[in-house]
Amino acid sequence: MTVDPRIAEITDRIRERSAPTREPYLARIMAKGAEGPKRSTLTCGNLAHGFAACGPLDKSRLSGDQTPNLGIITAYNDMLSAHQPFERYPELIRETARAMGGTAQVASGVPAMCDGVTQGQAGMELSLFSRDVIAMATAVGLSHDMFDAAVYLGVCDKIVPGLTIAALTFGHLPAIFVPAGPMTSGLPNDEKSRIRQLYAEGKVGREELLAAESQSYHGPGTCTFYGTANSNQMLMEIMGLHTPGSSFVNPNTPLRDALTREAAKRALSITALGNEYTPAGLVVDERAVVNGVVGLHATGGSTNHTMHLVAMAAAAGIRLTWQDISDLSDITPLLARVYPNGLADVNHFQAAGGMGFLIRELLDCGLLHEDVRTAWGHGLRAYTVEARLAPDGETVLREAAPAHSGDPKVLTTADQPFSSNGGLRMLKGNLGKAVIKVSAVRPERRIVEAPAKIFHDQNDMKAAFDSGELNRDFVAVVRFQGPQSNGMPELHKLTPLLGVLLDRGHKVALVTDGRMSGASGKVPAAIHVTPEAKAGGMIARLVDGDMVRLDADGGTLEILVDADELAARPLADPDLSGNEFGMGRELFATFRAAVGTADAGASVF
Asked: Which residues are part of a known binding site for [4Fe-4S] cluster?
């Protein structure tokens, strides 16, 4: 299928814009790849340190340069449900590598924090920066130069983007990402949301709330709503960094283990020692990036990726912009309804046909580049499948994705989409640039014109809600939440409050230079406002009562105040010292000082 001309045009402009950075990047990684395995050039002391803890067989193999050695980067910890299953993966990978005549070593562990635990807490102010810490920690592990390919074990919000940035920085190495899968379905997401709103109104207590949350998040695996973690898995598959059909298989199942072993085998087969050398830096090109953005829109994915994808692409010398993302949204139909865009969870999405069905639909209407290089090695059409377990209980079999959706209310066809566009858009106006996700926002709620109510802390807004001050139409402006101010925490704690006010019939919206959860839902929210307040953005000149107009349909975000009056106002200058200490925040002062803007990926690199 020939790619849609509109997709081709956007891809071409990204390629042209990126040429000054992409071409030197490719030259660097190809020169590094041409050097071949480095173990043979290490001094005897270097090499002895590198395999001192290995058994005799692995030492024998590692002493030369003809045996492929996999570097395992793991985000395992047993506090995060999504990452707990990785405890067993290194041994599975080592056993598989030995059976194939190779070796594997854990090169590094990387931090993995849970936004679900830190939501609304001081620790959330480290969350976004943890992405770049993960990239640096991965680089430390791979810097030993002992490896012919890397296997990345990560799932959640900042972890996969951080691992991807590092994988592309070491773009001469082949890369395979290995997921752990979603937990089995628990309390339905709409019921969980209902209990949260009741708690916000004081109609149920903490005991009832905790019971509901515990029924929702109840076992190993990712949370089952379609937030950043599951958007990550979709991206790794549609960008060709997973083995086909592996994103949404539940943890601790025979198929999950078989897919992990298969990923190790594939990683061994694509090193420079064989005939299928597939460096990660060639897999992730402009076409793969566009495929990722299209997949994000077609599934109603996380707003966090308006920053993460920009930063990931930059690591490969590719310059992706919010305008590219917005333009791709305009031409990508919404094919999936997974909470918060619907009532289903990712297990229902998988049962309805999953990634294989979705990729085939997008390929068949020309919205994806088919002729891409993937870690699997056969172009993107090879991903239009479902993974199954062979009768031997060890081998992964694949069959074509089903011809028809198993549940058209969850996963639909390109000719009968839930929406003609992906619903993730850029807003522009005299307030600057912002991002909004409208796939879960009712059409009648997408335009809000109301007086501003200013907050510098989400807890202040919660207090105003509790005191009854917010029972009216207004635009909540929660500012000094950008990366320079306090690390750009998610403000998902505000979602139930605003949802209550919507349900009471008020016109409300959120405008912030902070983030919302990857599960941004029914409240119209202009987020990632750039320039941020700390950098002198216009959002810092707003005062209570200013009329603000958010038009998600028209793509505008405006202060309805005379321009001269705005320019004459002083910038707000609140005391932010409370964000500088405690929970490790003092260690991240350099990050806050060096971080770039949200539209450039909010990166310190």
From this structure: 156, 223
Q: CA–CA distance from 163 to each of 97, 110, 374 (Å)?
A: 22, 9, 17
Whether the CB-CB separation of 450 and 459 falls below 8 Å is answered with no
Range of the domain at 24: 5-35+67-184+219-400
Q: Give bridge partners of residue 71 from the DSSP assignment.
A: 105, 150
**373 and 456 part of one domain:** no
Binding residues, as ranges, are: 156, 223
H helices present in 153-285, as ranges: 159-169, 189-200, 206-216, 228-238, 254-269, 280-283
Edge to edge, what strands does the sheet with 103-109 contain? 103-109, 69-74, 149-153, 175-178
- DSSP 3-state of 422: coil
293 and 145 both lie in a single domain: yes
Residue 12 confidence (pLDDT) = 98
Residue 46 located in a structural domain: no
Query: Among 385, 400, 415, where does a domain finish?
Result: 400
pLDDT (tens digit, 9 = 90+) per residue, 294-347? 999 999 999 999 999 999 999 999 999 999 999 999 999 999 999 888 889 999
Residues 394 and 431 in one domain: no
Q: Which of 271, 294, 270 is nearest to 378 (CA)?
A: 270
User: Over 70: is that where the pLDDT of 34 sits?
Assistant: yes
Q: Name 509's bridge partners.
A: 475
Domain count, the chain: 2
Q: Residues near 242 by Cβ (< 8 Å), separated by ≥ 6?
A: 176, 177, 178, 179, 233, 236, 263, 375
